[in-house]
Design brief:
127 residues, mainly beta, two-stranded antiparallel sheet, 0% helix, globular
């Protein structure tokens, strides 16, 4: 893989070159250190960073939908994904459908020793 360039050839009818797809607003960069940054999808902001010890498979672009699954448990772990195979497959309507993300903004940050950061403010009780 080249830096800031991803070449996908496992599609049945066409080839996709992801460099800086401004039409789809999809940026996949920094693949050398097994870190995947997917940012700026239409009305979504998804950050998947520091996926340690994973194999990344980007294939099967025929259905025009994006599915991220984990091969060991067949589901997506929102916190630190380690020693799992990540499958990212296809794009539908210039945005991605990841797990249960539909019309809201969701941040997935999977940094090595950090928790998943949500837009949730717990109630503080003072005694």
């Amino acid at each position: 893989m080249f830096k800031h360039r991803l070449h996908i050839t496992s599609m049945p009818k066409h080839r996709l070159y992801i460099t800086s797809l401004f039409n789809h607003r999809l940026h996949i960069t920094s693949m050398s250190n097994l870190r995947l940054h997917i940012t700026s999808m239409s009305n979504h902001c998804l950050h998947i960073t520091s996926i340690t010890n994973n194999r990344l498979h980007i294939a099967s672009m025929s259905n025009h939908r994006l599915h991220i699954t984990s091969m060991s448990t067949h589901r997506l772990h929102m916190t630190t994904i380690s020693n799992k195979r990540l499958h990212i497959a296809s794009i539908f309507n210039h945005r991605s459908l990841i797990a249960a993300m539909f019309n809201h903004r969701q941040h997935i940050m999977s940094i090595s020793n950090h928790r998943l950061q949500k837009t949730f403010c717990p109630t503080t009780v003072y005694t």
